[in-house]
Amino acid sequence: MKKLNFILLGIIAIVGIRFDAIACTGITLKSQDGTNVVARTVEWAAGESPSDYLIVPQGFEQQSMLPDGTRSGIKYITFYGYVGLASEDYVIEGLNEAGLSAGLFYFPKYGSYPKYDPSQKDITISDTEFVAWILGNFETVDDVIAALSNIRVVATDARAENLHWRVADKYGRQIVIEYIDGIATVNENKLGVLTNAPEYTWHMNNLNNYINLKPGATEPHKFGSITLKSLGHGSNMLGLPGDTTSPSRFVRAAFYQTSAPILETAEQTVNQAFVILNAMTIPIGIQYSDKTKIPNIPTATQWTSVTDMTNNRIYYTTMYNPIIRKFDLNEIDFSTVKYQQHPLDLIKSRPMLDAAID
Could you give the CA distance from residue 206 to residue 341 in angstroms, rounded to a whole number? Predict the structure, then answer.
């Protein structure tokens, strides 16, 4: 068996930056043909993070890093092969061959993991390796929930703040896992939206502050002695928050998602997810008051992924290339494929093509 050699470089590249510069937004769509799709953005504005994809076969041996710096935590052999989108070999989002999707989202300043207990290191896993463990071992959301009581999640870098996780299966069930006071809290994510802190239940309660939002334009109405009329389409959206804080992105994502039409096919729905998340893209610079420190990257939204769990496909675009690229897990034999890791972009320059002229 091979052993996946997770290194800390990718973790340090991410967790060492300012957490107020990190933002991730997730949505969920379903097509008329029953396809279940989850999608998300990945942002950090302090600079470019190495972005790779991993193909992990069945029978691949992995062992978690621990807070003491040793790789002596939980040890397991992957039962399901998977494709993971990662920073170095730190899996942020992925899909396994059974149709289970898992992804991590930053959860700074809220929640807390169990205290590290060296006597239980054989069931302890790093929070940054939790996604890989889920993808390698389980088929359904129920399977993941049942296993949570048999594992301890801890942080392995003192600079890293907490994470929370979205897990969804091909049957349409989706949950959010958060550790609050050291205890795993599982919330059914029936809406299918997730951003960052505060906790998921807070975001759901906060939606009640936007009960007035709906698609379309406001009807003309009397205002004293005059009649007010809408100046254009979308006046029912007045009050929709436009900033990039986690609460505002949650509300905006929920509105865009729930107002979107239900399309006929999986492919249409995948494209629709990219369009919706394009509206959530964060331009580089808006999070910096000191303009002399803005990094030279195209956008804070470093990549966007869309996962079709019904048809076992995962798609992505990056800040360097808006062309949609796809992995069809049905075409990968995870019993024979070799472990591999490749950059999401071979060329880090946005393509510009000449328009055709007759």
Answer: 40
